[in-house]
Design goal:
Elements lengths: L10 E3 L5 H4 L17 E2 L10 E5 L10 E7 L2 E4 L1 H4 L8 E3 L9 E9 L16 E5 L22 E6 L15 E11 L4 E5 L13 E5 L5 E12 L5 E10 L4 H10 L4
Antiparallel strand pairs: 1-13, 2-10, 3-4, 3-6, 4-5, 5-8, 6-7, 7-8, 9-10, 9-12, 10-11, 11-14, 12-13, 13-14
Length: 265
């Protein structure tokens, strides 16, 4: 996905009102989220391995992009709105594999973008969500529930999953499903939650739409949010800074009604 132009210095990759004003981040604007730099590859035995899919939109020039999505049902995928808004649905495919390639692809039948999403290149906005409905398929699936915990206190840990870049400088290092631990900074609203990396792993190109999972004391996972934006440098390299997710508890009713309306797809 193409980055959204920002001010000089570091930028944010993604959706909505200027982060420079919302978060007091000097010389920073939001940009579409990228991939997990130095993330650990997801194994087929991981409990969420079959819950996450690759989203491959193709633009009007025939260029394939890369995003991530999470299954809501075997034939419905939640992803970031900026991944599919304006895309020809006939050119969008979803990959059921740990690597994005030319196999295990399922065609998208239609997509529904949240009505509050504004595709503003120069700002970061709310509701960066879309649901993609798929053609019938027989690939294995795991459906993780939506998270009912609405607390995002400083230091709370989550798991980020995505097909994004594993090297912040190389655009061709994406396409492998990776995982990383990430924590909340304590800044959150009902529309955006700020996250920060721990250790040396953080989001990058291709992680847009990737699920942010919370693990409970019983070892079960739930989807807390969708990755929306990260900081990038002047050469669109991914920076070891904050990232931003769209929390799902605010949009649970829209997700439920969208699934109900698209049940016949």
């Amino acid at each position: 996905m193409s980055d959204r132009a920002g001010a000089a210095g570091s930028s944010l990759c993604a959706v909505g009102a200027s982060m420079a004003f919302i978060f007091g981040l000097a010389l920073a604007l939001p940009f579409p989220a990228r991939a997990i730099v130095q993330g650990l590859p997801v194994a087929a035995s991981d409990p969420y391995a079959h819950a996450v899919v690759g989203v491959v939109p193709v633009d009007r020039y025939g260029n394939a992009g890369a995003c991530t999505g999470v299954l809501l049902t075997p034939r419905a995928v939640l992803t970031a709105a900026h991944c599919v808004k304006g895309a020809d649905i006939a050119g969008v495919s979803v990959v059921f594999d740990l690597t994005i390639g030319q196999r295990n692809e399922v065609k998208a039948l239609k997509s529904v973008v949240h009505p509050d999403f504004k595709d503003d290149l120069d700002s970061f906005g709310p509701a960066d969500l879309a649901v993609i409905f798929l053609a019938p398929h027989n690939f294995p699936t795991v459906i993780e529930p939506l998270d009912h915990d609405v607390s995002f206190g400083e230091g709370q840990q989550f798991v980020l999953l995505g097909y994004g870049r594993s090297d912040r400088r190389l655009f061709d290092s994406s396409g492998v499903l990776r995982k990383a631990a990430i924590v909340s900074t304590g800044y959150d609203t009902d529309r955006i939650v700020e996250l920060r990396p721990i250790s040396d792993r953080w989001p990058c190109e291709g992680d847009s739409g990737g699920p942010i999972l919370r693990k409970d004391l019983s070892g079960n996972y739930a989807i807390s949010g969708i990755m929306s934006a990260v900081f990038t440098g002047p050469r669109h390299e991914c920076l070891f800074k904050g990232a931003f997710m769209t929390p799902l508890h605010t949009y649970a009713d829209w997700i439920a009604s969208t699934l109900l309306a698209g049940a016949g797809s």
